[in-house]
Amino acid sequence: MKFTKTILSVLLLATVSMFGCKSKSAKELIVNKWKMTNISGGDAAQMPDSIKTMMYNTATMEFMKDGKYEMTMPGNEKGGKWKISDDGKTLTTMDADGSNSEDADIVEISGDKCVVKNKKDNTTITMAKK
């Protein structure tokens, strides 16, 4: 009887490990409110450190489950739509009407960190969960 309980416990633990810890997709992980922690390369290379510091202290990007986003920075608020490619490697943001789209490579994404590299100017932005 004790052996049977042990076997059942091991099987239960194995089942939970296999099915309960399913990794999330980039589409699921991006839905969050993010705070900018670093910006480098591309156009950011010419940006003064004081501007970067201000952005780190105030800039946020929120991706909502319904496919909309809001970017907030002093003097510049923007909203629109977002989508992630089927392979989870490209983030596209666009105006609310679908115009002016911009693509970024998803370099890294997890539950608490997101790194994207703008395909147009090679600016890399690192964000942390807010």
Explain what you see.
The chain has 130 residues and is α+β, with helices and mostly antiparallel strands. It has a single domain, classed as Lipocalin. It has an 8-stranded antiparallel beta barrel. The N terminus is likely disordered.
Set down the secondary structure blueprint.
Layout: H1 2-19, H2 26-30, E1 32-40, H3 49-58, E2 60-63, E3 68-73, E4 76-84, E5 90-94, E6 102-109, E7 113-118, E8 124-129
Antiparallel strand pairs: 1-2, 1-8, 2-3, 3-4, 4-5, 5-6, 6-7, 7-8
Structure summary:
This protein has helices at residues 2-19, 26-30, 49-58, and strands at 32-40, 60-63, 68-73, 76-84, 90-94, 102-109, 113-118, 124-129. With 130 residues, it is an alpha+beta fold. The protein has one domain: Lipocalin (Beta Barrel).
Strand order of the largest sheet: 1-2-3-4-5-6-7-8
CATH topology: Lipocalin
What's the CATH architecture name? Answer: Beta Barrel
Largest sheet: 8 strands, antiparallel, barrel
Instruction: Tally the helices.
Output: 3
* The first-level CATH class name: Mainly Beta
Low-pLDDT segments: 1-20
Q: Rg to the nearest angstrom?
A: 20 Å
Form type = globular
Q: What is the β-strand count?
A: 8
Structural class: alpha+beta
